[in-house]
Amino acid sequence: MLLITCPWCGPRDEAEYHYGGQAHVPYPGNTADLTDEEWAAYVFYRDNPKGPFAERWMHGTGCRRWFNVLRDTTTYEVLAAYRLDEPRPALPQAGGNR
Amino acid sequence: MTTQPLPEHPDFLWRNPEPRSSYDVIIVGAGGHGLATAYYLAKNHGITNVAVLEKGWLAGGNMARNTTIIRSNYLLDESAAMYEHALGLWERLPEELEYDFLFSQRGVLNLAHTLQDVREGVRRVGANRLNGVDAQWLTPDEVAEVCPILNVSPDTRYPVLGATFQPRAGIAKHDHVAWALARRADELGVDLIQGCEVTGFVKDGDRVVGVETNRGRILAGRVGLAAAGHSSVLAEMAGFRLPVQSHPLQALVSELHEPVHPTVVMSNHVHVYVSQAHKGELVMGAGVDAYNGYGQRGSFHVIEHQMAAAVELFPVFARAHVLRTWGGIVDVTPDASPIIGATPVENLYVNCGWGTGGFKATPAAGWTFAHTIATGEPHPLNAPFALERFTTGALIDEHGAAAVAH
Ligand SMILES: Cc1cc2nc3c(=O)[nH]c(=O)nc-3n(C[C@H](O)[C@H](O)[C@H](O)COP(=O)(O)OP(=O)(O)OC[C@H]3O[C@@H](n4cnc5c(N)ncnc54)[C@H](O)[C@@H]3O)c2cc1C
Ligand SMILES: [Zn+2]
């Protein structure tokens, strides 16, 4: 069970949240001009890194707000949780307290 | 039905050769799919100068972590053709490989708990029959006849309103399947190289000409990826993207029991599937953990949920104990169907995206992937499963069709 800190409600069990996949995937601006390849990239392709991953979570049984989490997909360690209007935080230094 | 002792197996099933400096074909990943591909490259296409490179040990990935359900009752034509081809191969492989890997055609029930489940099931039975797949629709009483320990009374939280039944479906002993394929591939000349991790690709322009490994550079005419949960990691090394997300998928077993469960029961609605292995342990699988993960472990609440559903369906399980839980890493595509075919890199082929349900496909994945690598063209069975479908839009959307697809 992950322990995730909602930016508004504080630390809660994973079971209170819904997962939303990769964060920071903007809707394309020039939709009329997109090629099939570009549409495919937007609709079907998401990063799938082994290591730190910025992803969306929603606090379903709490404030019901979306926010972003930086989490390591190998250790599952939650590295940071931040609001949608905040930029992705820099990664903690390698060799630090990860 | 009685519990059976497992068959003895010889001490050494394959050589453990040092990697040579080059091969005609390198397969990355010695799970079931990589091993089946190597076997059929040798057997069907006479290509024996082949190495299978495995970063860990043979079948240490999903191949020996799955719940071994084999069935072919998929809704869509492309899937039914692929999985039915696999089932046909399963039916003859024990003899062909001269290895009894306990393939047991005890049937599978897919339970319906809602009106929507009933409609989906009845429709799928019709579609299956049109595709030559054995399928029946059973009423609750008929379900109870096939599996007497199932609670089919109407006053439960998840009443059983009926079920689809595929009598030819079943289970097999997964590690023995891997060993059977490995032994025969080895006999045919394939080098199975364990402890050999692919860390990069050697390219000449847009063409792959070899791989970098922790045991040095190995050149190859063609390279086939069969790395399941790690497919995206390898694709990134090779310089292209896959529409795949890796998730933890968990399963568990109970201690050994007398035979009580004669078939395989799956419930998409409550997310549990159960069989009883030959030795006697109850084997249960869950749905995937929602988050991406490469950790071969998931969260406990998923197991809790799965066991609550299992005990509701099978009241006798309330007294059983969990002996062991584990997880694998499954590679899930947007349409819940696999990707088998060419990649943007010349001479590099990929077989991935089997997600939660690729064990049952092992022989067909190997058959079609070997064909694709050997001839440079897809086999008719895997042509619809090309990577391009995510650009053309010709998806094979088994998500809606089969829900939990194990
Ligand atoms: C809990 C669970 C239950 C399941 N239940 C079922 C079921 O009931 N029925 C069903 O049909 N399917 C089931 N599946 C799915 C099935 O197990 C997989 O779809 C299938 O095993 C994938 O093919 P594989 O056997 O080749 O994969 P794997 O055995 O995972 O093989 C991939 C191999 O690639 C290796 N590898 C990765 N990266 C590298 C690298 N860089 N260099 C070298 N080697 C590398 C890995 O170590 C691994 O051994 C289940 C899966 C899980 C986890
Ligand atoms: Zn909150």
TrEMBL record, chain A:
GO MF entry, a single one: sarcosine oxidase activity
Organism per entry: Streptomyces botrytidirepellens
Protein name: Sarcosine oxidase subunit delta family protein
NCBIfam families found in the cross-reference section: soxD (TIGR01374)
Domain of life assignment: Bacteria
Cross-referenced Pfam families: SoxD (PF04267)
InterPro entries found in the cross-reference section: SoxD, SoxD_sf
GO biological process terms held by the UniProt record: tetrahydrofolate metabolic process
UniProtKB/TrEMBL annotation, chain B:
Enzyme class: oxidoreductase
PROSITE patterns in the record: RHODANESE_3
EC number(s) from the headed UniProt entry: 1.5.3.24
UniProt KW Transferase keyword: no
Domain of life: Bacteria
Cofactor: FMN; FAD
Keyword Transcription: no
GO biological process: tetrahydrofolate metabolic process
Signal sequence coordinates: none
Residues in Rhodanese domain copies: 25-69
One Gene Ontology cellular component annotation held by this UniProt entry: cytoplasm
Gene3D superfamilies tied to this protein: D-Amino Acid Oxidase, subunit A, domain 2, FAD/NAD(P)-binding domain
InterPro entries xref list: FAD-dep_OxRdtase, FAD/NAD-bd_sf, Rhodanese-like_dom, SoxB
Key words of the record: Cytoplasm, FAD, Flavoprotein, FMN, Nucleotide-binding, Oxidoreductase
A molecular function (GO) term: sarcosine oxidase activity
Localization of this protein: Cytoplasm
Catalytic activity, reaction form: sarcosine + O2 + H2O = formaldehyde + glycine + H2O2; sarcosine + (6S)-5,6,7,8-tetrahydrofolate + O2 = (6R)-5,10-methylene-5,6,7,8-tetrahydrofolate + glycine + H2O2
UniProt family annotation: Belongs to the SoxB family.
The protein's name: Sarcosine oxidase subunit beta
